Hints:
Elements: E1 3-16, H1 19-27, E2 35-48, E3 53-57, H2 64-72, E4 79-85, E5 88-91, H3 104-114, H4 119-133, H5 148-160, E6 166-170, H6 178-193, E7 197-201, H7 205-211, E8 214-219, E9 222-227, H8 229-248, H9 257-261, E10 278-280, E11 285-294, E12 308-317, E13 324-331, E14 337-342, E15 358-366, E16 369-370, E17 374-384, E18 389-396, E19 399-402, E20 414-415, E21 426-428, E22 434-436
Parallel strand pairs: 3-7, 3-8, 5-6, 6-7
Antiparallel strand pairs: 1-2, 1-4, 8-9, 10-18, 11-12, 12-15, 13-14, 13-17, 16-20, 17-18, 17-19, 21-22
Helix pairs in contact: 3-4, 3-5, 4-5
Amino acid sequence: MAKVIFNAVSKSYSAYxxxxxxxxxxxxxxxxxxxxxxxxxRDVSFEARHGETLCLIGANGSGKSTSxxxxxxxxxxTAGSVEVEGRVAALLELGAGFHPEFTGRENARLSxxxxxxxxxxxxxxxxxxxxxxxxxxxxxxxVKSYSTGMVVRLAFAVAINVEPEVLLVDEAxxxxxxxxxQRCMRRVHELRASRVTILFVSHAMADVQALGTxxxxxxxxxxxxxxxxxxxxxxxxxxxxxxxxAVRGSASVGVPAAAARRPAPAPQPAAGIPNADRRFGTGRAxxxxxxxxxxxxxxxKALIPNGRAIVRITVRAxxxxxxxxxxxxxxxxxxxxxxxxxxxxxxxxxxxxxxDETRTVDFHIDLPELYAGSFSFAPAVADGGLxxxxxxxxxxxxxxxxxxxxxGEIYGYIHLPCRVEVGGRxxxxxxxxxxxQ
Length: 437
């Protein structure tokens, strides 16, 4: 059974201040050591079980790519052991293993052979590789003439069509165009459903929560978190936000103390922002809280198909906002804008906000019957109407919730409200008279 096991793995590199120091150390190894040790990984242990998708997250330089290179056998651990069972296909570096002078066809055949496919198997699968890559006549041109996107198209097409048992993906899809990236994500979902063991490195938290059965958070080469994706992602984003606030020297985002002491308006303000992938705006007003509640006003743990939910957003003005417009965007597991609304769109005209004034808006929504996936909410506040406005604050993926499974099967993304009518049968009765029903 395909699996990847890291047992107390550490990996160090020798760092030299000058190239000549490396030469001196090679010629006179008994002399004073001229290099400093850099530990990319320190005592890392985890197991990606058969059929599991383990997503690796963390800041740049945290050891994610090193982990995948160790799993692929490109690197060897300084300490500990790495055990990998099953045919491995790796997408680690763009065009790794591709010869720039060879054509795409020649490189694809060579790569497939290195994965262990026979000549007959390569011939059988090559039409699928060519169809998936969709690079047209470039398949017979030298790879050195390819764009970055074309290289990753061909590399991904080869990797997924050699029937891997273990798939390693390191941010390779980030450079693809929107259409191809969607196709790749669908294919990864298919491999996941067919019980392929996947190690997936990504900075896109929506992908991590959609694909991962578990998530591994690496911080400076050490394991900082391992478990259910939404929990680990929330911890990671909270840590990143804390670092960002420390760098900017600003206070924690939340309900201001002065506002918290005021009598709570109706509805009750939402306190806190669970996540923040990206935040932008003029800062003239800020989102201080977002919550999703069920029909009884309790904190929702999941979205219920055909149920009702309340999206509660609390905003504080820093300057005067003449025409406040508060809303949210709902995104699916691929990070695609799925649905959204705002007070202006719903015909709710808000009064101007004074500096330091806090306002809370509830959006009561009737949820359709959606597929069981993860959905995130991006709250926003603007000054202006639907056409002429200024974004004051926008927070990507501030809160994420799973969609619970409905009673029926969902074909595609959404089940449309439907009424079925069956036409009457027309024919001849046993007596010979025409009948209709």
